[in-house]
Write a structure and sequence with these properties.
This protein is of the alpha/beta class. It has one domain: DsrEFH-like (Hypothetical Protein Ychn, Chain: A). The protein has six helices and five strands. It is globular and about 35 Å long. The chain starts with a strand and ends with a strand.
Length: 123
């Protein structure tokens, strides 16, 4: 069984970022459906997607919220610093029940994923 970590780094407010997120959630759903081991993580400005998915009236959520709900159980978490210190989306992340990763006020290290055999795919 393949072990894949999908890392979302794309911004939520650009056409490029929206395209990347569509591909990220569809890839997560495809791998999950195939029975593969998958973890999805949000890093950098990618954490702003969690704020978008927190809002039922957000256009992206209206179109892709059902796919997000299908893969929500694959979400390992969101970078602590990026969520709380840089992009201030902590309330949305908490409401969604997404864990914060990394030390308080710090970044999450992807090294453990690599050491445990995960292939890293970034969007």
């Amino acid at each position: 069984m393949a072990k894949t970590a999908i890392i979302v780094l794309a911004a939520s407010d650009t056409p490029e970022g929206r395209g990347r997120m569509v591909h990220a959630i569809h890839a997560a759903r495809e791998l999950k459906t195939a029975g593969e081991e998958i973890k999805m993580l949000f890093e950098g400005i990618g954490v702003t997607w969690l704020d978008a998915f927190h809002k039922a009236d957000h256009p992206f959520t209206q179109n892709y919220g059902s796919v997000f709900e299908e893969i929500k159980d694959t979400i390992e978490g969101a970078c602590n610093f990026c969520t709380t210190g840089r992009f201030e989306v902590g309330d949305a992340v908490e409401t969604l029940g997404i864990p914060l990763l990394g030390p308080e006020g710090g970044h999450y290290s992807l090294g453990n994923l690599v050491a445990n055999g995960y292939q890293i795919v970034t969007f």
